[in-house]
Amino acid sequence: MVTIKVFGPTPACANCKRAEREALKAAAQYPGQVEVVKLDALGPEAQAFDFMTTPAVAVNDTLLASGRVLRADELLQAIKPLIGE
């Protein structure tokens, strides 16, 4: 199972909401194989990723972006090798 982690403030800002929507679009390409988890940027999970701006997006345990919205196609490029495509 591949996990896309979207970090942002609570309540979520507009860009964090967009980042989550893009992550859900990417996950929809692989039902049952990719999950999206929304996490608080100030929560304990965020400390492991050492980012300064939100939204921050990680796939499994690799931070892919901080301070910008990753498009679904960009996320798919990171997900495909993990799924074996």
What does this structure look like?
The chain has 85 residues and is α+β, with helices and mostly antiparallel strands. The chain has a single domain (2-77), classed as Glutaredoxin (3-Layer(aba) Sandwich), CATH 3.40.30. 32% of the residues lie in helices and 27% in strands. Strands 2-1-3-4 form a four-stranded mixed sheet. The longest helix has 15 residues, at 14-28. It starts with a strand and ends with a helix. The model has no long low-confidence stretch (mean pLDDT 94).
Oligomer: single chain
Structural class: alpha+beta
- What portion of residues belong to β-strands? 25-35%
How many H/I helical runs?
Answer: 2
N-C termini distance: 14 Å
CATH class value: Alpha Beta
CATH superfamily: Glutaredoxin
Global outline: globular
* Overall pLDDT score: 94
Q: How can the largest sheet be summarized?
A: 4 strands, mixed
| Helix amount | 25-40%
Strand line-up of the largest beta sheet: 2-1-3-4
Tally of extended strands?
4
Q: What are the segments in which pLDDT stays under 50 over at least 5 consecutive residues?
A: none
Compute the CA-based radius of gyration. 12 Å
CATH architectural category: 3-Layer(aba) Sandwich
Could you say how many structural domains there are in total?
Answer: 1
Fold-level CATH name:
Glutaredoxin
H and E order? EHEEEH
